[in-house]
Amino acid sequence: MKILRNILFSPYLLLKHEYWPDSAGAGQWRGGLGFKTKFKIGGEKTKVVTFGDGDVEPPFGLFEGKKAILNKIE
Fold first, then answer.
1. Residue 13 parent element (H or E)
2. Torsion of CA 28, 32, 34, 37, to 10 degrees
C-alpha cells in the first residue's frame, strides 16, 4: 500500500486535522470548508509533508457563489 510505504520512508504524526471556519466562499452554492492540518515530522530526511491544491487560485463558486480562501502552508 502506497500510504504505508510513504509513512515508512517519511514518518510523520498527525497532530490536528479539523475544519477551517469561514473558509468556504459566501453564497447559497458555496463549496465545502477547508481544513487546518498540523504534522510532526519524524524522519531525519523528511523536510515537508503536504498535499492539496488551491494555493495559487482560490476555489471558485458556482451560481453566484463567491470564491473561497486560498490554501496556505506555514
1. strand 12-20
2. 150
What pLDDT, on the 0 to 100 scale, is given for residue 19? 84
Parent domain of 63: 1-74
Longest dimension (CA), the chain: 47
| Cβ atoms < 10 Å from Cβ of 35 | 13
Query: Which cell goes with 65?
Result: 457563489
Which residues 6+ apart lie within 8 Å of 3 measured at CB? none
CA 34 – CA 66 distance, rounded (Å): 15
pTM attached to this predicted model:
0.49
